[in-house]
Amino acid sequence: MRDSITIVGASLAGLRAAETLRRDGFEGRISLIGDEPHQPYDRPPLSKQVLAGDWDPERAVLTPAEKLEPLGLDLRLGVRATGLDVAARSLEVDGVPEPFDGLLIATGARCRTLPGTAHLAGVHTLRTLDDCLAIRSALDAGADRMVVIGAGFIGAEVASVARGRGVSVTLVEALPAPFERVLGEQMGAVVADVHVANGVDLRCGVGVSSVEGEPGDMTVTLADGTGIDTDLVVVGIGVVPNTDWLEGSGLTIDDGVACDPTCLAAPHVVAAGDVARWTNPRTGESMRVEHWDNAVEQGRHAVRRLLIPDEEAEAFAPVPWFWSDQYDRKIQLAGRPHPDDDVQVVDGSTDEHRFVAFYGRQGRFTAVLAMNRPRHVMQGRGLLEQGTGWDEALAVAAEWG
Amino acid sequence: MRIVVDYELCESNAICMAIAPDVFEVRDDDFLYVLNEAPDEDRREAMEEAVQRCPKQAISIEG
User: Model-level pTM greater than 0.90?
Assistant: First the structure.
């Protein structure tokens, strides 16, 4: 049995892993190391309630102090893991080496930035609490025009909150339809329609050629020459996994920390959450999942992996699931659709923005998407977990009525 | 053990229903109903998983 576990990354995956260890009865030392100064907090509210001004930042805390304290964690915040030597079982924290017994890497990801805009104070990304408060401050100070670059889910939620605060929003997406990469063209168009119905000026199929100016007086110039005047810009063009510190560690880095199907990256080392890449045996697909629920589940799975013998280790085989709140709609997706999968609406109506749709290809049922139909998403997720075929899944949905 | 749901926080994501359909049910009206507020002790692990995996942290266990 191990004496201690070190967890690098004090966000959702790391904290839930630490809590799981204690609940499982692990009595050794648990070190939880995070580079942000704040108590571990939850990120979804940053593009929702906290940004809207409905919640104080304190409400986003993941585990209240009175529940964290009894866990007896060696919690070190505001310090950064700077290196790792897997063979020597040595971690480096702020340049100082320390040995580890078992290690969970949960360092997450950071926002991709728009080239040429790093020096502009009016250009924001949204990942951390500080990012959120910077955008919120700009809105509180009276900004009433926003350009969001990138119609992914973060960009869409920021647009939604900004509209809710009465801000004029232009949403720019280089692809022909927003969310197309994740949802495909047909369902991407449905989500796009929700934004247009809520007053967003949506510009698809056009890139950004430049961003200039000071907060409150900025111009975004599109590739077609159109200029858009704005008070601030929020860039939501994806994330990159935080693996720079692992250079030379002995681990394989391939758009994330490469793990085996059980989440093991090397002997005594596991990874979980946004930073972890593994092959999901459910589909045979190599994946890195950036969803909230995956961080919780994978954090639990990976840290338990450190405490069991190799021959007892099980593969991590989830059906990925996420939700996104935009305006008064809750969008949920379970599974991993391919953009050119067949799509069939099995309940409700896309025109009413309340529906369930199934994705499938070659007789396989691949994903379920819904707007304001959470019950059926979970039922669909159950079917996906059972490996239900396309025809059978449709037959089950036909009974939902 | 008593299951308490904060309905101010609950957004009916239905994760809890997937984990413990004997205790949690999201119905066609999209609201969560707790079917059994005092599950047997042998359901504790599932209840703790439901607490951890609720995206809104709306579920708590008393006792």
Answer: yes
A378 and B48 within 8 Å at the Cβ level: the answer is no
Interchain pair A375, B55: CB under 8 A: no
Give A113-235's CATH code, choosing from 3.40.50.720, 3.50.50.60, 3.40.50.1000, 3.20.20.60: 3.50.50.60
Where do the domains of chain A lie?
4-110+239-312, 113-235, 328-398
Do β-strands A364-371 and A342-349 pair in parallel, antiparallel, or remain unpaired?
A: unpaired
For the domain made up of A4-110+239-312, give the CATH fold: FAD/NAD(P)-binding domain (3.50.50)
Strand A168-173, strand A145-149: pairing: parallel
At A333-390, the pLDDT tens digits run 999 999 899 999 999 999 999 999 999 999 999 999 999 999 999 999 999 999 999 9
Q: For B10-22, what is the mean pLDDT?
A: 93
Helix (H, G, I), strand (E, B) or coil at A163: helix
Looking at residue A103, its amino acid is L
Q: What is the pLDDT of residues A86-139, one digit of tens each?
A: 999 999 999 999 999 999 999 999 999 999 998 999 999 999 999 999 999 999
Q: Distance between CA atoms of A61 and A52, rounded to whole angstroms?
A: 17
Average pLDDT, chain B: 93
E-strand spans in B9-49? 24-26, 32-34
Query: Residue A239 and residue A108: Cα distance in Å, rounded?
Result: 9
Pick from A323, A330, A378: which is nearest to B18 by CB?
A: A378
Judged by a CB distance cut-off of 8 A, whether residue B60 touches chain A is no
**DSSP conformational letter for A40:** P
User: What are the structure tokens assigned to B14, written together?
Assistant: 């239905």
pLDDT at site A177: 83
In this predicted model, what pLDDT tens digit does every residue of A69-97 receive, in sequence order? 999 999 999 999 999 999 999 999 999 99
